[in-house]
Amino acid sequence: MNPDDPESAHRIVTEYARVLEQTDALALPASVRLLPYPKQTIKAAIVTCAAALRASHQLTADLFDFLEQAYVALADYFDDDVHRVMAEYRESLAAVTDVRTSSEKVQTPAWKRVAEMSRLTGDIARSIADESAALRVEFRARADLTV
Fold it and tell me: Where would a tag sit more exposed on the chain, N or C end, judged by fewer CB atoms within 10 A?
């Protein structure tokens, strides 16, 4: 598929949108392997779709927002190592919340994992936020759109 061809780009974005719909927000960040195409291909396809819609005077504010959000959502897809760390952290947090008293919580292996992983998961969350912001700016610059 050629992401620079409007017809192919539309198919790429449609397949990617299906993945976005099916990805549970609680499971983010998700594995990059869930994406139907590499991130760069999806990015190019989104920009191509935006340009084609603008050229045909079909680009509405809602479509622009959708394409921008889809572009920014790519920040939530990471390699399997990051995905695994975040999943383990979520599981440990869930295990800790199942324990009734504070004194019992700090004695659990899950608490130890949460304590050990908190800084790393915080760094990952900051990285996602930074990448999301950068992708928003990148989309607006690449798409060079006015609605």
Answer: C
Q: For the chain, what are the domain ranges?
A: 6-143
- For tokens 């790519």, name the residue: 74
Cα 6–chain centre separation: 23
On the question of a cis peptide bond just before residue 29, with omega within 30 degrees of 0, the verdict is yes
Q: How far is CA 145 from the centre of its chain?
A: 22
Question: Distance (Å, rounded) from C-alpha 31 to C-alpha 26?
Answer: 13
- What is d(CA 100, CA 45) in angstroms, rounded to the nearest whole number? 49
Q: Position of tokens 């920014």?
A: 72
User: What's the rounded Cα separation, in Å, for the pair 54 and 61?
Assistant: 11
119 token code pair:
């800084």
